[in-house]
Amino acid sequence: MIAYGHVRRPWLGATVQSAGPRSFGLLVVGVVPSGPAARAGIRPGDFIVAANGVAVHQTRDMVRVFQEAGVGREVRLEVMRGSQRLNLAVKLGDLPSGSRPAARAG
């Protein structure tokens, strides 16, 4: 915190939602233009099914992986786009000041 003057939180730059408690993956419902997700090629309508090889069922699963990786680190996301399975690398950004901490995955 001293080096940056604030607590740094990893940021994907996308809004995701779970399809339900028994679902697999997170639906991308929005992507911040020029954000980390957009630069990695993530699009609204994609399903993120794993982050660094860890299956994601709820947002907290992905947030945990992001927190372990840290700001500025690359995370590998397994994404379903229609019937196509993609492996995308995203370099996590720093959550912009004024953003809600709950939005760090989103």
How many helices does DSSP assign?
2
Measure the end-to-end span: 22 Å
Topology, number of strands: 8
| Corresponding CATH superfamily | PDZ domain
Strand content: 35-45%
The total domain count is 1
Radius of gyration over C-alpha positions, nearest whole angstrom: 13 Å
Low-confidence stretches: 101-106
Structure write-up:
- The protein has one domain (10-97): PDZ domain (Pdz3 Domain), CATH 2.30.42.10.
- The chain has helices at 36-40, 59-69, and strands at residues 10-11, 14-18, 26-31, 47-51, 54-55, 74-81, 84-91, 93-94.
- It contains two helices and eight strands.
- With 106 residues, the chain is an alpha+beta fold.
- The longest helix has 11 residues, at 59-69.
- The two termini are 22 Å apart.
Characteristics of this structure?
alpha+beta; Pdz3 Domain; six-stranded antiparallel sheet; two-stranded antiparallel ribbon; 2 helices; 15% helix; globular
What is shown here, in short?
With 106 residues, this protein is α+β, with helices and mostly antiparallel strands. It contains 2 helices and 8 strands; from the N terminus they run βββαββαβββ.
